[in-house]
Amino acid sequence: MKLICIGRNYTKHIEELQNEKPTDPVVFIKPDTAILLKNQPFFIPDFSDDVHHEVEILVKINKVGKHIDKKFAHKYYDEIGLGIDFTARDLQSQLKEKGLPWEKAKSFDGAAVVGKWLPKTKFENVDDIQFKLLKNDEVVQDGNTNLMLWKIDELIEYVSKYFTLKIGDIIFTGTPAGVGKVVANDKLKGYIENDELFSITVK
Hints:
Elements: E1 3-7, H1 11-16, E2 26-30, E3 51-53, E4 55-61, E5 77-85, E6 87-88, H2 89-97, H3 103-106, E7 112-119, E8 130-135, E9 138-144, H4 152-159, E10 170-172, E11 180-181, E12 187-192, E13 195-201
Parallel strand pairs: 1-10
Antiparallel strand pairs: 1-2, 3-6, 3-11, 4-5, 4-10, 5-7, 8-9, 8-12, 12-13
């Protein structure tokens, strides 16, 4: 099982980090060891002083596929979730300056929160899903899938050109604006519309 992550998929997030708007989806991989264990706190790693939260809509792949056409992409998932792509921003900046891969900053143990799953049938339109992240009961990220540069089915078409998708693979679809630093004792809660899908403590 692999986590396929999409970067720079919301314009305002691109702007807040002063990144260039990509012409194709930015793709990176997290190993399954990056998944934060259920009911466990997130421990800030000792190699970073600037870990950021990035809340994202998740899609769980339900059958094997390769070179999936966009018009068939909807058949490859039936669950929608919510998670966090934790990023060691200071380490990522150092790596980017040297033109090196980001994995150490994005794929360390515990860097991926995977919350509860909801049936896709719950949503009238997966391209219009409202979601948010609360930090200490204050909304810090508020997004909607209608703001994605590349929508879910387009992402499945794109990533399946390069990677065979397998049952249980998870696609992290990108984060909206509002990313920020977490510190010890922060409480993070993620919602899709009115459903709470995860609640974690930072240590």
